[in-house]
Design brief:
alpha/beta, 23% strand, seven-stranded mixed beta sheet, Rossmann fold, 9 strands
């Protein structure tokens, strides 16, 4: 299993606390990402979420799809998530490294959102190809990062997390241009709208790039 900050430190109850934010604008961003995906669902889809954590997004989307499966690298996240999702019969969460995917089936919708490309430390275009291999013909993949317009709110959110002891102190000299660096080694980058457009174009599939709520940058790829 690949060495990962989220598996070793920011997992389980700590990850849960990340999303218990007292910042209204951050909560709006979190809700807007989920709403953007939900409005594309018809209720018949089998959905896969990569880097699902403890199932926060899965819980919100489960009622709008046939089945939702999540994977996460952290056994702690999955153990916490099994309890978190226990009353949702169409949601399942598994321990799996997103760099070593071994599904035999494909999915109507694949999610790699909440800046997951950064968290997974991937080569974006190579990883998009893996995602599309998991997508059923006619299916859709959703990839999201942060909008540049959300920088101040994102930085405030990371300060909030650091204040809770969930992350190290923010290195303000190093944190700029969409990159947040903590003094404990944590580093979060972003993919801009232009980056996502380049990835979509290079993928060879039909795609759209859009900004949602002045907080998220979304790449939506259809496997046609």
């Amino acid at each position: 299993m690949k060495d990962n900050y989220y598996a070793k430190g920011l997992n389980s109850q700590k990850l849960y606390q990340v999303y218990q934010t007292k910042l209204p604008r951050v909560q709006q961003y979190l809700d807007a990402e989920i709403s953007f995906v939900r409005k594309h669902l018809q209720g018949t889809e089998r959905v896969l979420e990569l880097g699902a954590g403890y199932g926060r997004i899965m819980k919100e989307l489960a009622s709008g799809c046939k089945e939702i499966i999540g994977i996460d690298i952290s056994p702690g996240n999955v153990a916490f998530g099994v309890e978190y999702l226990k009353n949702i019969p169409n949601a399942r969460l598994h321990v799996m490294d997103a760099h070593d995917l071994h599904f035999t089936e494909t999915f109507d919708v694949v999610l790699c959102i909440q800046n997951a490309l950064s968290a997974m430390k991937t080569q974006p275009l190579e990883y998009i190809k893996k995602i599309m291999d998991l997508t059923t013909p006619g299916g859709v993949a959703f990839v999201s990062s942060y909008s540049a317009k959300f920088w101040e709110h994102r930085l405030a959110w990371f300060h909030e997390q650091a204040g809770k002891g969930l992350l190290g102190e923010i290195d303000l000299e190093q944190s700029k241009d969409g990159v947040i660096v903590c003094k404990d080694g944590f580093r979060s980058v972003t993919n801009s709208l232009e980056d996502l457009d380049a990835i979509g174009s290079a993928s060879g599939y039909t795609y759209e790039v859009s900004e949602v709520d002045d907080s998220s940058a979304f790449l939506v790829i259809t496997k046609r």
